[in-house]
């Protein structure tokens, strides 16, 4: 049975043949299908903890990426499988792995507004060296995303992290405060202004400060 068929069975919830395949072919657990997916990625997408455990015990690579450089952790986050995220993190999955756009699992958790997943990832910081200020290809951090999407609870969680950079600048010179002002996130703006070292006069490449963006908006 080829990998495409096995992954199809995983996605359809037909795990009996899959488990048999894994036990008989542990050397094939990291093979990819035509889209670059591994069995572990499909299992994380589905959220079957028993199958995921079997795969990891059989040598599944936690950090291998698909064609878009998504890892099993990216799939677990995107599909809101919080318990699977916690399991992968506990097994040493690379929490800082970036996809082809530079987004980490934390970026995706924030974009999807999954506060519970964000908490799991942040709680792994000490053991897994989570880079809370990691920037994607556009220079955007998780804090930037949280401000953009108006997720004040997630903003609060991020601001509690040691070493959080409230003045991180994306490729066009925008900070978290710029984007919060741009989108009228008043509560978030007030919260950011309470942070030590916040630079209210930061100028983007257009010459605008956060105040300019608030007025223009």
TrEMBL record:
Coiled-coil stretches are none
GO CC, one annotated term: nucleus
ANK repeats, residue ranges? 35-67, 68-100, 101-133, 138-171, 172-205
Q: Does the keyword Cell division apply?
A: no
Q: Name one GO biological process term.
A: regulation of gene expression
Classification via PANTHER family: ANKYRIN REPEAT FAMILY A, CHROMOSOME UNDETERMINED SCAFFOLD_25, WHOLE GENOME SHOTGUN SEQUENCE
Q: What is this protein called?
A: Ankyrin repeat protein RF_0381 isoform X2
